[in-house]
Design goal:
332 residues; alpha+beta; Aminopeptidase; binds coenzyme A
């Protein structure tokens, strides 16, 4: 049995198609609680780096037959001592050493790039079953930040009752909603809130620096979402006295299936906490989504287990646990 690993050029459609095919074959096996992502979306994962990072893509062959794929992400500005890795093996080719060979190849490259920390993530059922987590444990990774995934049926959210509950707390703030790109006048505020995410949201033991409060980071995210075929729904709260956006949330509607969305960032500026703005922005966004995209029914959210405030808000909206994820960390 021979295992050979080779890099591939993400501009090469045939090689990329092999990698995407493996990821889409693995998805219903590893994450039965989630929809299988579209080829467009999975391709974008390989093809679209964020600002100031490199993405290196690999295919693994088992006795000449393509059996696995790997992605090595190398941040080149902040987090220059860190690498992120993803390894996926076709379900029919597992337990024959392909995963380990891909992992060892990627970490050797990361080490040669001067990286000392490597991060990865796996998904688990609520009972803790996960081939990925068994693999990470075997390879000596540390369970740095566990998170729970929750699913919401938008049709069941008592939006009007919740809106009435938060209304008395919202004096001095005005809700704003929009779909698509962040308006130019507000992009600096949104970049600031985005930059606070890694500072404010609990991330367990993960050593990872947040992004710069730079509008270009936001514009690059928007390009990435556009390339994935996603539609973005935002809600924010404007602080009347300063005109600044001080709370923000976003839902990403998938290109396929359109009935699913991911809850992305929700953040309230620390100076403006305690006014129910977190719940209020989410309610406004749900109202927007129900009106503009009635086909979007299921919203999935990830929260670090220790993020008790966000979890309380999500539980009030009706999000219910359906799976888990773990961020793993190792020293090279
Ligand atoms: C995790 C994954 C990459 C492993 O691929 P693989 O080719 O089966 O892995 P290997 O054969 O190299 O296994 C290496 C070791 O991991 C552990 N392991 C792998 N799968 C396991 C399982 N189902 N149960 C228990 N241990 C497992 C074992 O210790 C194994 O060594 P052994 O076979 O000598 O006992 C594959 O199951 C997969 O693609 N899962 C979904 C994606 C994922 O979670 N990736 C990992 C995070 S990036």
């Amino acid at each position: 049995m021979t295992i050979a690993i080779s890099p591939f050029d993400v501009a090469d459609d045939a090689s990329l198609g092999e990698a995407v095919g493996i990821m889409r074959a693995a998805s219903p096996v590893d994450d039965p609680e989630l929809p299988t992502l579209s080829a467009l979306r999975v391709s974008a994962r390989f093809r679209n780096p964020q600002v100031n990072e490199r993405r290196l893509a690999f295919l693994a062959r088992l006795d000449g037959v393509i059996a696995g794929t790997g992605l090595l992400i190398l941040p080149d500005e902040v987090n220059r001592d860190t690498a992120m890795i993803e390894v996926v093996v076709r379900p029919s080719s597992r337990r024959r050493g392909v995963g380990r060979a891909l992992h060892d190849h990627l970490t050797a490259l990361a080490r040669a790039e001067g990286r000392v920390t490597v991060l990865g993530h796996t998904t688990e059922s609520l009972s803790g079953d996960s081939v990925g987590s068994s693999f990470a444990e075997t390879l000596g990774y540390h369970r740095a930040s566990p998170a729970i995934g929750r699913l919401l049926d938008l049709e069941q959210v008592p939006v009007e009752a919740l809106r009435a509950r938060v209304a008395p707390h919202l004096g001095g703030y005005t809700p704003v909603v929009w779909s698509g790109e962040v308006p130019e006048a507000d992009v600096a505020d949104i970049a600031y809130l985005n930059g606070r995410l890694m500072v404010d949201a609990p991330t367990g033991d993960i050593e990872y620096e947040g992004e710069k409060p730079d509008p270009e980071v936001i514009r690059n995210y928007e390009r990435t979402y556009r390339d994935k075929g996603s539609t973005l729904f935002h809600a924010a709260m404007r602080h009347d006295a300063t005109g600044r956006l001080v709370a923000w949330t976003m839902i990403e509607q998938l290109d396929e299936p359109r009935s699913w969305g991911w809850q992305q960032i929700t953040l309230v500026d620390p100076e403006h906490r305690g006014h129910r703005l977190g719940l209020a922005v989410k309610i406004e966004n749900h109202l927007q989504v129900r009106e503009s995209a009635p086909e979007l029914r299921w919203v999935h959210a990830w929260n670090a287990a220790e993020n008790t405030y966000m979890i309380a808000i999500n539980e009030a909206l009706g999000f219910r646990p359906n799976m888990a994820t773990v961020h793993w960390q190792a020293r090279l």
